[in-house]
Amino acid sequence: xxxxxxxxxxxGRMVSPLGLxxxxxxxxxxESSRNDAESMAVIRTAVDQGVDFFDTARVxxxxxxxxxxxxxxxxxxDVVIATKGGLVVDDLSTHTMRREATxxxxxxxxxxxxxxxxxxxIDLYYLxxxxxxxxxxxxxxxxxxxxxxxxxxxxxLSEVSTVEAARAHAIHPVTAIQSELSLWTRDAxxxxxxxxxxxxxxxxxxxxxxxxxxxxxxxxxxxxxxxxPLGRGFLTDSIDVGKLDDDDFxxxxxxxxPEAMEHNRFITATVRRIATAxxxxxxxxxxxxxLGQGPRVLPIPGTRTPRHLMENLGAIDVSLSExxxxxxxxxxxxxGSRY
Length: 339
Ligand SMILES: NC(=O)c1ccc[n+]([C@@H]2O[C@H](COP(=O)([O-])OP(=O)(O)OC[C@H]3O[C@@H](n4cnc5c(N)ncnc54)[C@H](OP(=O)(O)O)[C@@H]3O)[C@@H](O)[C@H]2O)c1
Hints:
The protein is of the alpha/beta class and about 350 residues long. It has a single domain, classed as Alpha-Beta Barrel (TIM Barrel), CATH 3.20.20. It has helices at about 35-50, 65-70, 105-115, 135-150, 160-170, 215-220, 260-275, 280-290, 305-315, 320-330, and strands spanning about 5, 15, 20, 55, 80-85, 85-90, 95-100, 120-125, 150-160, 175-180, 225. Strands 3-4-5-8-9-10-11 form a 7-stranded parallel sheet. Strands 1-2 form a two-stranded antiparallel ribbon. Helix 1 (about 35-50) packs across helix 2, helix 3 (about 105-115) crosses helix 4 and helix 7 (about 260-275) packs across helix 8. The longest helix is centred in the last third of the chain and has 20 residues, at about 260-275. It is globular. It binds NADP nicotinamide-adenine-dinucleotide phosphate.
């Protein structure tokens, strides 16, 4: 990876422009075929390549992912690990989660995450989802107290509106906001995806859809961290839905159903055409576009394979032209809600 760094919020801490999303190593994507040894090798290869921004959450495998990331990075206390809390697993086998962000629960969750990670301080801790039964000020205030106690270095939010971000920021600085952002999901920029699910929020879904959160982060000195920047694999133009394992959550995800996939091919057709012109891959063009969304934007593509990791890191060397960017920005909305 070309040596380049970006600031994490306004903390003064510089990190690699592309982080590594570790969720799929434990949760969501074909868990029956997960392989901890291979996943740890991917994490260590990423470190060797200069990646120093790793993303996990307590809920990913109910602690499994945090333990895995903690083990893989045991000898590297210098790299940034971001984790999240405020969602708890009710049933691991069915991925049933619920929002739980009372101060007491967050205190317990933070202690558990520290123990899973094997670290005495958590670098970046996100409120994974706002709990509608708890005032955001109470959840965020409890997390701010844990910063004062030296348990957490910096705080972030995930899937919030600009109004929620401002409410939190008034109490304690928001260092990063992590929400879904990719060529087929522009909600965090205030550009609605077709099929956006406006029903009341469930545990996994967005808490609100509201505002241009990416610009809010730029205006407030925070990083924006695009999750699923490869559209959960769709934008790599290499997903064969028929071959997904039964326990892969995309099997039932609306955007991966045959009709939506057929409709959404116009997106990958454009991405592939631009990629070919740059002698790059669709994954690289998708990540280059995400990197172009701001100087403090830190995409976290996920992968379980060293080959995909290396390919994705190559995105840093892809320079899209103004014409490419205009064409990619102009892609119409995707069919199918994202959860
Ligand atoms: N805050 C939240 O609520 C939230 C929600 C979801 C995710 N996240 C975070 O965001 C991270 C990234 O999201 P994600 O993993 O769901 O989606 P993603 O990064 O958009 O895509 C991951 C998928 O793409 C495949 N892939 C990666 N690179 C590829 C390449 N070069 N060629 C072909 N396929 C490739 C991966 O398979 P292989 O393993 O085979 O490469 C995997 O199936 C997660 O790991 C997690 O840390 C956060």
